[in-house]
Amino acid sequence: MTTITEHTYQEEEDKLESLLSDTASYNGNTILERQVRLLNTCFIHLQDYTRTTPEEKADADDILNTLERHVKDLYRLYRAAKEEGFYVRAFSKQITLNPYCKEEKSVDELTKMSYKLMDNKIQHLRYEEIFNIYLFLDRLFEANGILDWLDLINDWKIEIQKDSRSMQERYIYKPAWTFFYFHKILEAHYVIIDTGLWSHPNTPTEYYHRDNAIVHSDVATVINPFEYLECLVFDTPILKIKADIQLLFDYATKDIANREKSALYLINIAGYIKALMETAYLVTQTPYIPEEWLKPEKWQRYTTYIRPTIEPIVFEYLSQKQQKKPYKVIKKELWSISNTNYILDTWKEYALDTDRKLENRHNDFIKINKTIEAIYIIYYDLLSKEQIVVKDGNSES
Domain count of the chain? Predict the structure, then answer.
């Protein structure tokens, strides 16, 4: 069994660049689209048996030469993983079902999710392959060896360059199957360059970020939302958050003569609660996530091994039944993150305006508090993954 070799991020990038050809001139934003167009045209000409023009032959030769370079690059990366234990973390994430989502997706739904990742450029790689290219590399070189792939590319080259072709004289091995794999080769190479060398954020939450108004965009595209949740509530007891929610709501809905809190304090409260709501949304609305996201010992704060203080939760809004399935509460109450942000923005607006009062929207107040209690249950359960046991609000190491 090959031992996985640890490298710094810079060492990974340097070695990756040494394994890939012609990365300096690679412009993935436009070149992948051009490559896909050329491959589609090449396949059409391969199938229709009509005479191809010199320009069409040149375009076909161009894309087939590109495929040849790409499959060699992928093979070098594959060999480095198998023989040297070299894996690039940016595209070797192990994807697992999110235990706080409980929402398995069908193959069709995962396919649609894949399309939205990487700026809608990925149409053939599987969802899990986008995050772990090595899964695709295994499948690619289990289907055919490197010499077999190069032979298939050469067969296409020979066939497309013929001045006259006929069905009787043509022999191309499984053209549709090969065409599909050629697309995946182009996409895999794009993902490797984009995430490995250009550091494009490649996270499952990016899918949701594109469709929802996530104010803290780094939470959705770069940061592990589970780790970000820990950062938000690490040293903030739930009673303090509830008190701040009550304060903001009272300032927005009641005529309070002597205001002890400043406008800046109210603005900060609203921003903090919005960040917490958005993070709760991402934590419970992402069905498949990297395994490492659920390992607190790998989080940055835990490199210095600072354990959080676990406070007891006094449940005021969640029933016992709801406490057992907090993710369902969050899904119900945060059905629209835009709507929740609007509620909090409205509270802030009226809280800052002493001349106006908001009508008492107690249902919204309950919804926010239910979400807070639910996300703390999830937070404490996350800590239990790191051998911190929560019992009736007490912590045991």
Answer: 2
Structure tokens at 98: 């999110």
Q: Does 369 fall in a domain? A: yes
Distance between CA atoms of residues 30 and 325, nearest Å: 45
Q: Tens digits of per-residue pLDDT, 205-247?
A: 765 555 566 666 566 556 788 888 888 888 788 999 999 999 9
What gap in Å lies between CA 327 and CA 102, rounded to an integer? Answer: 8
**Which one-letter DSSP state was computed for residue 90?**
G
How are the residues of the chain apportioned to helix, strand and coil, as percentages rounded to the nearest 5? 65, 5, 30
- Whole-number pLDDT of residue 207: 57
Q: Tens of pLDDT along 157-178? A: 988 888 766 554 567 778 899 9
210 within some domain:
no
Residue 160 lies in a domain: yes
Structural domain for 369, as ranges: 217-396
Same domain, 223 and 195: no
Instruction: Report DSSP letters for 123-146, one per residue.
Output: SSS-HHHHHBHHHHHHHHHHHS-H
Do residues 175 and 43 make contact, with C-beta atoms less than 8 angstroms apart?
A: yes
Q: Is the pLDDT of residue 135 over 80?
A: yes
Closest among 195, 178, 204 to 134, alpha carbons compared: 195
The set of residues, in sequence order, having a beta carbon less than 8 Å from that of 391 and lying 6+ positions away, is none
Distance CA 233, CA 379 (A): 8
Q: How many CB atoms lie within 10 A of CB 236?
A: 15
- Please give the helix or strand (H or E) that residue 110 lies within, else none: helix 107-116
- pTM of structure: 0.73
Q: Which of the listed residues 140, 169, 201 is the one where a domain comes to its end?
A: 201
